[in-house]
Amino acid sequence: MRKCRIIVLPKKACKMALKRLIVLVITGVSAFQAWAQDPHFSQFYANPIYLNPAFAGVAQCPTVHANYRNQYPGMGVYQTYSTSIDQYVDELNGGLGLIILQDESANRTLRLTEASLVYSYHLKVNRKFSVLTGFQGTFRQRALDWGNLTFPDQIDPFYGFVKPTNEIAPNQTNTSNVDLSIGMVGFTENFYFGASAHHLTQPDEGFFRNGELPVKVGAQAGATLRMGRKRLYNSLDNLLIPNVVYQGQGGAHQITAGVSFNRGPVSGGLAYRQALGAVSYNPDALVVLVGLAPNDVPWRFGYSYDYTISPLKNTLGGAHEVTLSYRLACRTRKARYNEIKCPKF
Fold first, then answer.
1. What pLDDT is attached to residue 60?
2. Which of 219, 124, 224, 208 is nearest to 173 (CA)?
3. Long-range contacts of 265-268 (CB under 8 A, 24+ apart)
4. What is the dihedral of CA 327, 94, 255, 308, to 10 degrees?
């Protein structure tokens, strides 16, 4: 602030310059480095086949999921949209799914668009244990809007970002690739576990130089603790579900541990996300989840808020996430296996 007063830069222009520089730092890591990472969601099980392709068709009837995440809303840095549909197909003895995702950084300066087809083979090992194996093919396109970037050499002491930059634009500002991913889930009535590996082909998404997208590995696990009267145990209500999700990509690793509950039409949960590094373990966020999941309607709604507890101290506004799921009607069939008791949203 002192520097702004000395050069008589208007307060509004000073704040704008600072904001644009911070956005450049955050976005530039993804745009120019070779270790770009995927967007993630806090409501993992409201976007199940994005988490692990093996979940395709697990709800039997066609199910649509819509997800929106706004991270650091005060700066407009990250916004992610995802829509998916999946269902079980008798003739294929498994599930089919389709995912469309778009991720925007710094007011659409850097955009990722992808479309994925998913197939999951369902195997009932015995009366109590089932295994799902998923395969995913994805078309990815990443685009950089060079004209929307600003650099320090464009700053005029009195007027802000008005000078031309000496930075040289890359030869290409769009990349397109085909990618492959796999996953596995095993479960019984009382617990489930899974593992996934995305970007097995490690597509080149660099703009200035070769930039292979690192393989993203994940692991998921959870258990079911029944609550309430015994006559309600056979439903998806009155359940307490501790769960843990690990994700690692490149040099970044994180683990999210939480507990969710389904009680009548109300669902909720609390989770803690921790970043894991080679030499340090940094707290990331506390996640609060609430939702509505009435038994007599086909839709599910969820909202979550990430309260940042990292050194940023929530100064950028944390993250908001909204999800909506809708299960379409389908013909009644004898279930080949019990439904996984994940959180409803």
1. 85
2. 208
3. 265/292, 265/293, 265/294, 265/295, 266/290, 266/291, 266/292, 266/293, 267/291, 267/292, 267/293, 267/300, 267/302, 267/343, 267/344, 267/345
4. -20
**Residue labelled with tokens 């998921």:** 220
Q: At 281, give phi and psi (nearest 5°).
A: -130, 105
Beta strand ranges found along 51-127 (DSSP E): 63-71, 78-89, 94-105, 110-124
More confident residue, 186 or 224: 186
d(C-alpha 61, C-alpha 180), whole Å: 26
Return d(Cα 263, Cα 4) in angstroms, integer: 55
Residues β-bridged to residue 140:
114, 177
pLDDT above 50 for 16: no
Tokens of residue 343, six digits: 């959180």
User: What is the secondary structure of 274-292 as a DSSP string?
Assistant: EEE-SS-EEEEEEEEEEEE
Question: Which ranges in the chain belong to alpha helices (H)?
Answer: 2-6, 11-32, 48-51
With a cut of 60, say whether residue 11 has pLDDT above it. no
Q: What is the pLDDT of residues 57-76, one digit of tens each?
A: 988 889 999 999 998 887 76
> What pairs with residue 276 in β-bridges?
253, 281
pLDDT tens digits for range 107-119: 788 899 999 999 9
